[in-house]
Amino acid sequence: MTDNQADDNKPEWLDWATEERHIGQLIREQNPAWFTEICQILFDTDPMMIRLVGEPEGYAPEVGSIIRSLPQCISVEDVQQLIFNVFTQWFTPEFAGGRSQYFETAQAVWASWKAQQQE
């Protein structure tokens, strides 16, 4: 099999996920302590309400996607929608669940984001 044939068999989402992970790593390098804090928030609040991740770092891909878009948010409701959208993208709408289950996580992320803005 040639490289081109291998690329043709690659799932469409793989390029997107690879790029998101790369962006997330760049974001982590800019502020590792805050990145870790957001991972911990997601781990503690478990917004999908199922323990898929055995440690906070397991949420790193989603955290990169969340942090990247936080500057567009102006309220906790915006953050709730953002987090819901991120989980829908990384998983599936069915697996991500309902938007309402992301409220507690959004409150904590919003508070952390506001604290970052004051530093």
TrEMBL record:
It comes from the Bacteria. This is Uncharacterized protein. The lineage of its organism: Bacteria, Pseudomonadati, Pseudomonadota, Betaproteobacteria, Neisseriales.
